[in-house]
Target: EFMT2 methyltransferase
Amino acid sequence: FSPSVLGTREHWDAAYERELQTFHDIGDAGEIWFGEESMVRIIRWLAKQKVPLDSSVLDIGTGNGVLLVELAKSGYTNLTGIDYSPSAIQLSEKVREKEGISNIKLKVEDFLAPSAELSGFEICIDKGTFDAISLNPDDAVGRRKQYVKSLCSVLKPEGLFLITSCNWTKEELLNEFREGFELLEELPTPKFCFGGRIGNSVTALVFQRK
Model:
C-alpha cells in the first residue's frame, strides 16, 4: 500500500479532536467504520456461536466506542476498548456516559506496545485498525509483524480474533496471520460487480489462536 496520513497517530488525534468537539456541540458520536452492518455482522456471529456473555472482549482501536456500546446492549458484560489516541478514548467515554453504560473499560494504549495488564482476552475485535497500521509511512511491514505478536500476547490460546478490513483480501489476511492463527470462518460482506467480476469491498474473517 502507498503510505498515507491515515496510518499516523497525528491524523487520528486531529480527527478525534474534531469528533469530540462535534459530540460536545450536537451529541453526534461520529463515523462508524464500515457502517452499522459491520457491527451487526459481528454481534450476530457471536450470538450464533453462543459465545458466553461474560467472555472478555477487547476492541482494538475502539475509536468512538460505539461497537462496545452495541455489545453491551446485546448483553456482553466484560468489555474493554483501547486506542492510542487520548481524544478517541475521551470521545468513547462520553458516548458510554450518554448511553448510561458503566461496564465498559476504556484505556489509552498503543496496541503495538501493549502494557502487561492487557492479556488473557477470549475475543479480540479489529475494525479498521490493522488497515490503518498497514498505511503507516514508517516501517509498515515491521508494524504489521508487531501487531501479530501483540495479538498473540493479549489473546488466550484458542481465543477468537474477528477482523474487518477494506485493504486486505481473505488470502492476504490468511498470509498475514498464518503464524499462530487458523481461519475459522469468513463472514458474508456486501458484494459488488465490476467488469463482469464479482468481489467484496470489505473482508471479514474469524481466526482462532492456535
In short: The chain has seven helices and nine strands. The chain has one domain: 5-209. Strands lie at 56-60, 78-83, 104-108, 121-127, 155-165, 181-187, 191-194, 197-200, 203-209.
